[in-house]
Structures are given as C-alpha cells and as structure tokens.
Design brief:
Distance between the termini: 38 Å
Radius of gyration: 12 Å
Number of domains: 1
Largest sheet: none
Order of helices and strands: HHH
Number of helices: 3
Structural class: mainly alpha
C-alpha cells in the first residue's frame, strides 16, 4: 500500500471509530447512518486507491444507504 492509501485508510478507520464512540445518545436510524457513512468511506478509499473524492463519495453513498435501511 502506498502512503496515500495507507493514510486514507487510517483516517477512515479513525473517523469510523469516533463516530461509533459518539453513538450512545443516537437513535437507531442515526447510528445506522453513521455506520453506513464510515463503512462507505473505507470502501470508497479502498476502491479508488485513497482518492479523497472516492472516500467522500463512499461516505455519502454509505450514509444514504444506512439511513434508508433503518427506516
């Protein structure tokens, strides 16, 4: 893994960890949205080789999917 991919992956994992740590007072739908966004960010970073646009795009798509699944 090159340095950009490694950094993007670590940043995504850190963001996901922080999001999950803050889920104590959230509704079930909010939790699902946050988890979807975190997983989407990691997936987007991996699939696009650490591209910032891919990471953000993955987070958006994952968040929307997580939000809609919990409805």
């Amino acid at each position: 893994m090159n340095i950009i991919q490694s950094s993007a992956f670590r940043l995504s994992v850190t963001a996901l960890s922080m999001a999950l740590a803050g889920c104590a007072g959230m509704s079930s739908q909010d939790k699902s949205t946050a988890i979807g966004a975190g997983a989407g960010a990691v997936g987007g970073a991996i699939l696009t080789g650490g591209s910032g646009v891919g990471t953000v795009g993955g987070a958006v798509v994952g968040g929307v999917i997580g939000h809609e699944i919990e409805k």
